[in-house]
Amino acid sequence: EDQVTQSPEALRLQEGESSSLNCSYTVSGLRGLFWYRQDPGKGPEFLFTLYSAGEEKEKERLKATLTKKESFLHITAPKPEDSATYLCAVSADRGSTLGRLYFGRGTQLTVWP
Amino acid sequence: NAGVTQTPKFQVLKTGQSMTLQCAQDMNHNSMYWYRQDPGMGLRLIYYSASEGTTDKGEVPNGYNVSRLNKREFSLRLESAAPSQTSVYFCASMLIEGGEETQYFGPGTRLLVL
Fold it and tell me: What DSSP element (H or E) covers A33?
């Protein structure tokens, strides 16, 4: 059974204190691993898609990395506006189920000044 | 581009009532999806449509029906609402370009079934 587990469930950081969020997955035939940001009362906002082990992508203070079993979302020198829930999802390479995503429960990040 | 739009934003239903959640995208994407999000759980796929004219069940399809009206619009219908269907519903559409996949989400419909 495909599973996505995110840790920690919640993380509080002081502004400028770098850290990492973890997403571990078990899926047969990984097609892609997705990171989203979700603000309260809003829909998920796309951040990155990673496709193969060793791949890295960056956007402002965020950097996502991928291994064969997990992905990390590194947050460098976070600011209060980075506070949000970060969601991880995977898609499997199974023909007609293209684009079907399996989501983790998310990590709620709070950055205080 | 408005992206993915959903109506209504909020809805309160009584048990047994029916309603249709509307979703539209203006990005010319082929694939569209309906998810529900419940506290303490990840987003779960209800139904999806890989292309115009096709629909398939996801993880939690019971109690729902869908219609892919055209390339832009994908609606979700609750025929007889139950309290267990209280949730936030998100519609999404997917772009595949140059081997890259990106799924864009709408703002959500918050549904309360009493």
Answer: strand A30-38
Interface of B with A (CB under 8 A): 4, 31, 33, 35, 40-45, 48, 50, 56, 58, 90, 94, 96, 99-108
State both tokens at B65: 């029906």
Q: Tell me if B101 and A103 make a contact (CB, 8 A cut-off).
A: no
Residues B73, B75: Cα–Cα separation, whole Å: 7
Percent of chain A at pLDDT exceeding 90: 81
Which of A37, A43, A46 is CA-nearest to residue A86? Answer: A37
Q: Compute the distance between CA of residue A66 and CA of residue A53 in angstroms, rounded to an integer.
A: 5
Contact B101 A31 (CB under 8 A): yes
More confident residue, A35 or A94: A35
